[in-house]
Amino acid sequence: MGTIDNASSGKTLIVTQSSDSGPAGSGGFFARLPLKPQDRYKFIRSIGFGGMKGVLLVHDRDTDREMAMAIMPDFRERSAAELERFAREAYLTASLEHPGIVPVYDIGIDSSGSPFFTMKYLPGLSLETLLQRLKRGDARELKEFPLSRLLLIFIRICNAVGFAHSRGVCHLDLKPANVKIGDFGETFVLDWGLACRLDEDGSIAQDLDGMRGTPGFMAPEQFDMRSGFSPGVRSDIFSLGAILYSILALETPFGKGSMEEIARLTVSGRIPRPSKRAPEFWTVPSSLEAVALKAMSPHPLDRYSSVRDLRDDISAFSAGFATRAERASTFRRSRLFVVRHYLLIIILILLLLLVWQLTEDLF
Description:
The chain is an alpha+beta fold.
């Protein structure tokens, strides 16, 4: 497999020690792919290419609708392991039925022998593109996507990932580029190509064949397989923290640099605060900063124990409560109580003044 040396590319990194290039079809997911008629789908245009697959926009003649089709254009040059990984992604994604995960419609092999799977076509833009526009100060995006709306998007991301964890699946490549935002508020977590099954303790149930993920969003244990901690649920939580960091700073946690530099900063936990890197026009609440940094703790046990806990802290902030991550003082909690109930407090004060005035008039 190839490697990506420059982490600033933002591309998924897969480093394996396997050199399996034998014929596919000896078993597993690829062997289950059914043969499909080639004339069912009409090509419209290419949507994009990345990693080992391309995505096309096609028209399904059977259902008379447009959909996205994932293909492996150079499948004849791919190893059995890569073909198996492609088929495995198709079946795994199809098994995750959730409003925040793109539905898979069809899986198979066409008459040329190329594997494919079709999905819901998602117009819109990626979270990565949106954050780049916000960073540039795009007036339309700044008006349409204030921090409060971005937090709702983040909560939807957490819901999708939390559901996958409940079904025993870990994503392992969460990043803004793998989140799609629809034209009507839909939010989808995409690209489950590196996803793995989980053990009951929340760790990966299989021996990974090498380092995988995207530098800048990978947890320390994804870089250092000898760290004593197996990648798993808390690795996804780290990546979610990195997405939240990107929302707060409008910048990736470690900026641009080589994979080696980003790996060193990730493992050491030397992460600059989002407020130090955000543009002047973008306000970063200290309580949310604490949430992001807790989720990105270098030690897995110092992170949130579940996606639900992370999501609940974001919900608490949105509702005007203190987050667990900030360890708020009594004064801070009291101030937030006053802010949440200021109308009721004003009404009570007015009633007390009215009672006092009536009392004065009577006596």
